[in-house]
Amino acid sequence: MSAYPMALSGRAERHFAGILNVIVPPTKLDTSLREPLFLRQFEVECIEVAIAEEVASVLRQRWSPTEMAAARAPVVQTPKPPAMSTQGFVKCPVVQSKIEQLNNTTLDARCLPLPPDIIDSGTIQLQPEIQSRDVELAMFSRATALRRAQRVTVRGFNSSSVAYQTSVRAGVLLQRDPIVTQPAGKFEERDPIVTQPAGKFEEATDRYFDWIQFISADRFPRDFFFKKGSTAESKWMEQEDVRAGEWFFDAASKPVVKSVKRVVHEDDMIEKSEASKPIVVNSRETEADAAGDQRSLERRLDRTLYLVVKDAKGEWVLPQGSVNGEELLHQAARRNLKEICGGNMSVWMVGNGPVGHSKSAEASTFYVKGHILAGQPNANAELASEFKWITREEIEKTVSADYWLAVKDMLSTI
Amino acid sequence: MLGAVSRHVAALRPGASRAFSTGPVVGYQTRLSQFYHNTLRDDMMILQYVPPQVRARQEELEEARLKAIKENVGGTPPNPLRKRQQTRPPKPRVAESAAHNTPYVDKVTVHIRCREALQNKHNLLSALMTLQVVTGQRAEVIKAKNDAAPWKLRKGMPIGAKVELTGDRMYEFLDKLVEVVLPRMKEYNGLRMDSGDGMGCFTLGFDNSAIGLFPEMEMVYDMFPMVFGFAVNIKTTAGHNPAGRLLLSGLNLPFVHARKPATESLML
């Protein structure tokens, strides 16, 4: 089970009866389960590199040190992939063709380091000890290839793959998801396109359809569940009487429930235990709502809250920072978040790719989405003087007009 | 928006000019359904996004692979099993994941196959009642479609019970399963990673010890003369297993890798 926000422990009871209507907190989606089409590309690339290295090492073992020294040693780059399978395994027909290639043609020097005499002669003769079987073994030794592949970096999004003239910055869209359910009838559709708030007609329609469902539902088999005349039965009938009253449009037209003749049983003597006390539901409005404390995570429980920070220039923005060197975007985003907000937050970032971007004269900032699971920001005074957790509407009022236009489509209306 | 979301099921009757229905409402007001719509759907879309350059390269590689198979480059593979795999028809191409076609849970079917009903069809009442208690919905009787002489089964005999859940009831049942029943089960750590039929359906099977773990059954367990095992089939709109696993893991259903049995070479 996922960790529940420590800041919200008061609400954290997963009361199944649904009375508190607590939303399931965001779970750490097991990213190893994600669609391996994306991962396969990474695997393929890793294995391509690994296989090139394996083959090279097999061939290298047969050369003398002088030959090795004399060999042209080009930069081993990721070789351009031949027709290889996307399943992470090298299919044999392709291996065979590759071996034939090795035997018959000159190889591009980028792919494998070779002793100079072989390249000059225009043909490649594998040394007699090297059977095609060895190469096959090297290529089929997936375990070895994968072990080597661990050292290859994860494919991510980095500035070299983005053709921008300006520098690239990484930001984080950190959100706290809704804690309680939406009140019934508030939104017809869950799409980001906002419809008008529910009016009287929508509420009345919802009540009508709920009533039809209630009326046409199967009869509750009271005689199956309760012993005739027992205390439990009479208690249930009282509760049912109250509940049924809520469904009827006109309270006066509700049929009167005939009371059951109570037969005194031994269980009447048992005193009321803790479990039988009526459950008191917490209010949807918290103290933070009343106080208007925008730093609190317990405010606006039915809405999504986003973290905004006041940067060095005094403007309210989503937390962001620079991308250093060969750093990948998601790594930069995490690092920046940690630098700005401190290490006292448990955050789950959604994937490696960005969900939005904003452009300024100096830089393009790409935002990676994250969920806060626990903790609170501990704002670094140099980078961020203040922080707030606010809803979409409140963001519109807080940030500058240009910035709002850039980020509004990333933000949830719920 | 589309199918999964609209509150009232609007079916166009033949001859009708407008989509309107006074039938049962398939609401989406449970916490799981709101979690899906508010949070999970977005996250899944982000996680399944493949950039266009990568997608183009994958297609290129796929074409080259198929071409190599077709031209039978290289002759017979060393592993005889691979030849069998190559005769399998190619899998249908999975559509790109976008906002409008993110996988969602469509339907959950809970069913009981009741062998005891062969001798006495009144035994089926326990099964029907069990399902009604556990799902909150009236169960249907499953009748045999074929004869099976070894088991003295004839076509049309009532042989099982099932409930098909959609909408709020489906989410509530899934919630119960994940939060209450599965944690209480002994030695259950999760669905296997190789589960799933490849078209988005996942099935969990339970034996008769599991039915007593439902909160509704605690009170009335003694009233049932017979307890049965049951199967839960979760139908999602995912096109292949990984997307389905992503969806279900987001709804807190655990997954584990299938463990290989220990070999003799293990030093003890």
Automatic annotation (TrEMBL), chain A:
Domain of life: Eukaryota
InterPro entries for the chain: NUDIX_hydrolase-like_dom_sf, Ribosomal_mL46, Ribosomal_mL46_N, Ribosomal_mL46_NUDIX
Keywords: Mitochondrion, Ribonucleoprotein, Ribosomal protein, Transit peptide
Subcellular location: Mitochondrion
GO cellular component, one term: mitochondrial large ribosomal subunit
Domain Large ribosomal subunit protein mL46 N-terminal: 189-289
Cross-referenced CDD domains: NUDIX_MRP_L46
Pfam hit, one: MRP-L46
Family (UniProt): Belongs to the mitochondrion-specific ribosomal protein mL46 family.
Protein name: Large ribosomal subunit protein mL46
Originating species: Coemansia spiralis
UniProtKB/TrEMBL annotation, chain B:
GO biological process: translation
Domain Large ribosomal subunit protein uL5 C-terminal: 158-255
Domain Large ribosomal subunit protein uL5 N-terminal: 100-154
Keyword line: Ribonucleoprotein, Ribosomal protein
SUPFAM superfamilies (alphabetical): RL5-like
Protein family membership: Belongs to the universal ribosomal protein uL5 family.
Protein name, UniProt field: Large ribosomal subunit protein uL5m
Organism (species): Coemansia spiralis
Gene designation per UniProt: mrpl7
